[in-house]
Amino acid sequence: MRLPRRTFLQGAAGVLALPALARVARPQAYPARPVRLLVGYAPGGVTDIAARLIGAWLSDRLGQQFVIENRPGASSNIATGTVARAAPDGYTLLLASTSNAFNASLYDRLDFNFIRDLAPVASIARDAFVLVAYPAFAHKTVPEVIAYAKANPGKVNLGSSGPASASALYGELFKVMAGIDLTTVHYRSVGPALPDLMSGRVDLIFAPVASVVAYVKDGKLRPLGVTTAERVGALPEVPPIGDFVSGYEGTG
Predict the structure, then answer these.
(1) CA atoms of 246 and 139, how far apart (whole Å)
(2) How far apart are CA 131 and CA 190, in angstroms?
(3) Per-residue pLDDT tens for 226-246?
(4) What domains appear along the chain, each with residue ranges and CATH number?
(5) Please, are residues 170 and 225 in contact by the beta-carbon 8 Å criterion?
(6) Whole-number Cα distances in Å, 88 to 23, 127, 177, 198, 215
(7) How does strand 66-70 pair with strand 20-21?
(8) Which tens digits make up the pLDDT trace of 122-156?
(9) Which of 6, 79, 159, 164: CA 20 to 30 A from 17?
(10) Please, which residues have CB within 8 angstroms of residue 99's CB and are 6 or more apart in sequence?
């Protein structure tokens, strides 16, 4: 499997991540055996998809298997701690994400230091988030959602990929800046949340564009707004949420 650089970056465009490994000088024969690549979320989310793309590419390129290992929980802290405590030999890697940056501020007692205990290897990609609803959701625009939520506090359910995740934080920012009360429902990652969203068990979720663009194209989800200041190439018809909520500009 040979993935051109452009093809890989487009396929993995859902992740803002620095894969990291413990600080060590790698032997010249590296890798001489299979390498574990840990993901801090359940299968099906954009971080998992990116890990599987890069793992297949590296396996082919380097001649050793890169085994994807999902360790969901605590907003990726379980996986991150596992890598931080692993032998510093380069055979246990982490596909990091924006959550690793958030966690340094949100958790008081982490048993690792992300900056000290792990070293960045490469930046894979960047991605915007998009607010999506299930197709039958009655409110078809961000202003309609805000108006309904203001008149009906707590009646709109907002899914998230877990406390302290980018999905959850975008949701909290949206609630604060729009002055609305939404009921947040946490999942272990975006992947497990999508079936509930498409069936209407939850109303909305902030998800990486790469995780949901296929469902949007198939009509299984309806996009309402993106978190970037400008429109996103994959969903050019979807306006930025900042067009409706003053000052709301996420990072892609």
Answers:
(1) 20
(2) 12
(3) 999 899 999 999 999 999 987
(4) 5-120 (3.40.190.150), 129-243 (3.40.190.10)
(5) no
(6) 6, 30, 43, 42, 40
(7) unpaired
(8) 888 777 899 999 999 999 999 999 999 999 999 99
(9) 159
(10) 40, 75, 76, 164, 165, 166
